[in-house]
Amino acid sequence: MGGILKMILEITVFSIGIYLILRFLRRTRGSGVIRGLTLLLGGGVVAFYVMIEALELARLQVVFEAIAAWVVIGLIVIFQPEIRRAIVHLGDSPIFKRFLKGETHTLQRLLRSVSRMSKDRVGALIAIEREGSLANMAETGSRLDAEINSYLIEAIFQPGSPLHDGAIVIRGDRIVAAGCVLPVSHSPNLDKRLGTRHRAAVGLTEETDALTLVVSEETGTISPAIGGSLRQNLSLESLGQTVEENLGLR
Known about the structure:
This protein is 56% helix and 14% strand. The protein folds into two domains: 90 residues; 152 residues, YojJ-like (1, CATH 3.40.1700.10.
C-alpha cells in the first residue's frame, strides 16, 4: 500500500512539473513544438515509470534514469533560444517587478510623459502588458523595442506624427510597438460621449488583463482602464497608485 501511495505522489509531482514547464514556456515562439514534445515525452515517461515500478525492474530503472538525464540536457540545448526568451518573459512578470528598483524609475518616466500630455491636451493611448501577452496587438503597429523615455512617448503622440492615432504597447521597461490598433468596446454601459480612443482602452481590457492609460485630447483628463472598467477624473497621485497596484509594484 505504501508503495502505491509513493508512486501516486511521484506521478503527481511529475505532472505538476510538466504543467509548470508548459505554463512557463507558453509565450515563446517555439512553445507549440515544446508543448508537443513535453506532452509526448511526459506521457511516455509516466507510462514507462508506472510499468517499471509495478514490475520492480531495478536494472531497467537505472538505464531509464540515465537516458532521461541525457534527454533533458538535449532538450535544453535544442531549445536554448526559446528557453532564454521564456526567462526574459518571466523577468517581465509583475511577480518579479516589485523586486526590481528600475521599475519605479520607469513608472516615473511614464507618468511624467502622461502628465505633460494631459496639460497640453495631447491625446494618447498606452497599453501596458501584464501576465497575458499583447504580442498580437503589437503586430498591428510599428515595432520599436525602445527603452521607455518620456520625450519619446510625447513625440509619438504629437499631432501630425504618423503613429499618434494608434496605441503604444509597453512590456516591462520597453516600448514594444507604436501605432497599434486595439479592439473597440461596444459595451452599452460606457458613456456615449466617449470617443474611439477611450473605447479602445476599455476594449483591450475586456479581452486581456492589460492595463491601459488614455489621455483625452479634448479635456486633458487621464483615465486608466482595467478589467473592462474605466476610471475617470483621477489625480496624478491616484493614477500612480492605481498603476503601481495593478502592476504589482505595491
